[in-house]
Design goal:
By secondary structure, this protein is an alpha/beta fold. Helix content is 22%, strand content 14%. The strands form two sheets. It has a five-stranded mixed β-sheet with strand order 4-3-2-1-8. It has a three-stranded mixed β-sheet with strand order 5-6-7, with no helix packed on it. Helix 4 links the parallel strand 3 and strand 4. Helix 3 runs parallel beside helix 4. The radius of gyration is 20 Å and the shape is globular. The termini are far apart.
């Protein structure tokens, strides 16, 4: 066009390219996702969390479940690990632990009971100590120093891209972690997602974000820190797994794809839903097997 004006008839959002490698590893390893535990609040499911600890230490479950527990290599706490304080009006009446530092001390007490060989990865959410605006830096050490003192705890930002399972012969899986502050916006604003069930249609939400290569592609969908040099919320590297939480619905209603997204080949994942059978609560957790060669 002579006047440099461009008219578009259609916008195409690219999917995961076929050239994206579907990584698989030889060893059988498992990863656990825990979201919105909100320790310190009246909604924290203490009995379920303690049952999780017992299972990880081989004290509960059937033979198959105990065998899987021994193969857990990673545990990811993906935001809102404590209830926080002053997050919303009247929250003080829903807290069993009022002091924020004591909430993290209580979390640390639980995490110290996890098996020592398991790497525990923690990213913040909107209830955690620190700024709400994204990208969120790791949880503030001033309040969560007890977590930083645990040797097998790794503190990361929100969002973050972490690599797990790497060894001398395998490059590992790239896992995109995002707590999900923007998700409620798209549950309401996108008709196809809203009509499919809103927050229950989490596979559609995550696919929507992946196709746009951004965890919050709409102005107003989240709080953010403007950066005139780069946008740290851009998904510039396609992950092998995309994990996010901040869903306040019963997880026994959800499907596996709502914990991970990989679109050009859906390899079978075994022994996944047992976790729901074992706990069957609102506790936001899932265990799944990392893809491997069968």
């Amino acid at each position: 066009c002579m006047d440099k004006t461009l008219f578009a008839d259609k916008i195409v959002h690219p999917d995961i390219p076929l050239s994206k490698e579907l990584k698989k590893q030889k060893d059988e390893e498992y990863l656990i996702l825990i979201g919105d535990s909100e320790i310190g609040g009246t909604h924290f499911l203490k009995e379920s969390f303690e049952e999780l600890i017992n299972w990880l230490n081989g004290k509960t479950g059937n033979a198959e479940q105990k065998a899987i527990a021994q193969k857990i290599q990673y545990i990811v706490l993906i935001g809102d690990v404590v209830s926080g304080h002053g997050i919303y009006p009247g929250q003080e009446f829903e807290l069993e632990i009022q002091d924020l530092e004591e909430q993290y001390n209580e979390l640390a007490r639980y995490l110290k009971q996890f098996p020592k060989h398991v790497d525990i990865i923690i990213c913040p959410g909107n209830h955690d100590a620190g700024r709400i605006a994204e990208p969120q830096p790791p949880i503030h050490k001033k309040y969560a120093h007890a977590l930083y003192d645990i040797p097998n705890v790794i503190m990361v930002s929100n969002p973050s891209l972490v690599n797990i399972g790497a060894n001398e012969t395998f490059s590992g899986f790239d896992v995109l972690l995002y707590h999900g502050y923007s998700i409620p916006y798209y549950c309401d604003a996108v008709p196809s997602i809203r009509n499919a069930g809103g927050q229950k249609a989490t596979d559609r939400i995550m696919k929507f974000l992946l196709q746009r290569r951004h965890v919050a592609p709409t102005h107003g969908s989240n709080l953010y820190i403007p950066n005139d040099q780069e946008d740290p919320l851009v998904i510039d590297k396609i992950p092998d797994y995309f994990d996010c939480f901040d869903f306040c619905i019963k997880l026994t209603e959800l499907s596996l794809c709502e914990f991970e997204c990989y679109y050009h080949a859906n390899a079978p994942i075994k022994n996944t839903m047992f976790f729901f059978e074992l706990f069957n609560t609102f506790f936001c957790s899932a265990a799944f097997e990392l893809r491997r060669n069968y």
